[in-house]
# Entry
Amino acid sequence: MYQFNYVRAKSLADAEALLAQADDPKLLAGGQTLIPTLKQRLAMPSDVIDIGGLKELAFIKTEGNAITIGAGTKHYDVATSADVKRHIPALAQLAEWIGDPAVRHMGTLGGSIANNDPAADYPAACLALDAKIHTTKRLIEADEYFKGMFETALTDGEIIKEVTFPHPEKAAYQKFRNPASRYAMAGVFVSKGPWGVRVAVTGAGQNGVFRLKSMEDALTKNWSPDAIAGIKVPADGLLSDLHGSAEYRAHLITVMAKRAVEAAG
# Structure
C-alpha cells in the first residue's frame, strides 16, 4: 500500500482550502468508487480529503416546482424520502435500485455524478430531468456537465454542493441490471415536462450517459411505448464486453425505453 495523507474536512470551506493546498488530492464521500480504485492503484492521490461527514451537504428540500438534494445525501435517503416519492417517484425508484443495502447506505448522489461512471444511474436522471448541478464555483446545466466516460465539467478544486431536479409531468426509469453487480447494462430514464421530452441512456455508451434524440422526437409526437417500438438504436459507440455485446445493449435500450414509457403512464 502506498502512502497518502488522510484528513477529514470540518466544513465545505475547509474542504476547499485543503484541496487548494494539496498536490494531487481526491475527495472521499461514500467511498464506493474511490476505495476500489485506490486498492487497484487506478488512483494514487497525495491526499484524501473526507467530506462524507459534512451535514451541510446531506439534505433534501422541496422549493417551488423542484427538489434540491445535497451532494452528500445517501442513496438510501433519496429512495425513502417522502418528498422525492411524492414529486419525482422515478428518482426514488432509481435510488432504490442502486447496488445493495450496504452500497445505498454509503454511496452519495454527489459521488455518483462526480465520478460519472458509464454504468452509474444518477447521470441518466440528471440528463432526463434537466437537472442543475450547483458547485462551489457555479451552476452547471446537466447537458453541459457530462463530458464523457469518467469525465465531467468539474475543474480543479471545484466541489458539487447540491443538485436541483425540476418536477416532471411524467417520468420513469428502467434498467437491465448485471445480476452480480447490479450495475446498469442498459438503463433508460424518460421524462416529460416544461423542458419537453427527454430520453437518457446509461450503462450502454462508450462515452457514458447520453440522450437519444430519435426517441425524444417520436415520444414528443406520441407519448406511447408503440411510438418507439420500431426504433433500432445503432450499435456504433456502445459498450461491448463479457457481459454483453454492443448489439445486445442496443436491443436492451429499446426494451428498457418502452418499459419506462409504459411505467410513466
